[in-house]
Structure formats: C-alpha cells, structure tokens
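Hey team,

Filing this mostly as a record. A colleague (T.K.) asked me to run one chain through the structure pipeline before their review meeting, and I want the input and output archived in the tracker in case anyone asks later how it was produced. No errors, nothing strange. Just documentation.

Input sequence:
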Amino acid sequence: MKYYKQKNQSLQSQLHRDSHNSSQPLSRDGLKKKVVNSRVCSGRKIGGQPSHKGSTLNYAGDVDKIISHFPKESCTCGIAYRQTKQSTTYVLDLPKLNSEVTQHISEHWHCRKCGKTYYSRKFKGNKEQYGEQLKSLAIYLKDYHFIPYQRLSTLFKDCFSLSLSEGTLSNFTATAYHNLEEVEQSLKTNLLKSPHLHVDETGLRSQGKNHWMHVASNDKYTWYHFDAKRGIEAIERAALLPNYQGTLVHDRFSCYFRYGAKHSLCNAHLLRELIFLEEQGHL
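Output structure:
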C-alpha cells in the first residue's frame, strides 16, 4: 500500500512540472498553464537607481553638412544685428532611402593577330542584378530579425521602391547558405579547441512539422545545426560533439553525457529543479 501511495504522489507531482521548475521547454507548457517568473522582486523602483551613472545622446563626431539658422524677425529699433554667440544642435537622422544603380561596362577586346576575344567575366547571368549590400540587408532582416518573406518584400517596395519577389529573397538566403560553408567549418574548428562548450537544443516548427535547432557556443563563437531529430541521431549528423574532448555545459539532457571529457550542469536548470522540490514540500 505504501508503494502505491508513493507512486501516486510521484505521478501527481509530474502534473505540476513546467518550464519554471524543470528542464521542460516553454513550448510544452500549454496554453492553460500560468507562466511563473522565477526572478525575485528586488523592491527597487523602476528606472535608474541612485548609484547608476546616467548617459544621454552626446555626439562629438564628424558632421556631414552644416546649416546656419538666422533670426527671421527684424529689430523694431532698426539698428543692424550684431552676432553675440552661437548655439549648436546635432540632429542624427537617416539619409533619404533611395536605391543606387551602378552601370558596369565590360569592354570586349579583339586580338587583330590571332582573333581571340578578351573581356571581364566579373558578372554572370542577367544584365540586371542586385548588389551585395542589398542582399546582405535582406538576409540580415530575414534571418536575424525574422521578418517573413512577404513582409520583407513589402518593406523593400515601401522604403526603396524595389520590387523583390519572395522567390528572389529566398534565392539570396540559399546563395548565402552555400557561401558560408567555409565559415561554418571555421566555427566548428574553433569550438572544438574550446576548453568549455555550451550546448542546447530548442524545438521549433518548420513547414508544419516539429524540428530542432541545436546550438554549441563559447564566449566568442556560436554554431547552429537544424535537424528533424533531437537526440543522438541529430548530434551525430551535426558532426561536432563526437570530436569534442573538453567540458560540456548542458541541461542534463541524457544524450550529452555520451560526449566530451567532462560535464558541467547549467545552474539555471538546477535552480528550476530545486524550485520543484520546494513546491512539492521536499525541501
């Protein structure tokens, strides 16, 4: 009878587990569960504290243009003005957003002796192309700020009067993906040399299905691996941890204990486990 009572208490306690008192991700909490903030209120007022050193906009760099402003009113006595002093105001703004079009002319040269033709092969494909600055901005807004292709297309039309289709924007990302292959390999090489490596995995949806974003990082580098799986199968495909010999810092996910020479558990997750034990009356 005692066994079944303990078993029942254990099962009941599982119902009270969520992201604030366990390693369970926030996405599994569900819509009905209340998110509990684990931070303790400091009791201080909102805003800068008495010992906080404030900062304000204090520009001291170069200026692009200077505009002088003179009084519009005329003195009622009719005597000419005499300047006494000047006051300066700096207005930091963005230039008018316009696309810049550069015409490139490739001259073809013909050898009069042998008949060979020579010309620059810098540009390939269409005679109208998008430049690297535009592509970089599109990729930055899409992959870092998570602006969907449809909204990104609208942004370029509204701000730059450029009609970029969603397919064109997708091609920018695909090209960058292939061009960054060497960068990715460099990241993995540097992370493998790191004495400590932080690893984690986060669930997300892609094309209506569950996938996982695996991450490995230290204080300088961060590397991602996107996979349909979460466990060993995905870790082996990523081909990073199987070659790592340092200390792995993680959330006690069982698969990570197969890799690395030593292990260090994430304090944030340990605190959540302690919160659970306290809520269940075990502390």
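Quick notes for T.K.: The first helix runs from residue 2 to 14. The first strand starts at residue 109 and ends at 110.
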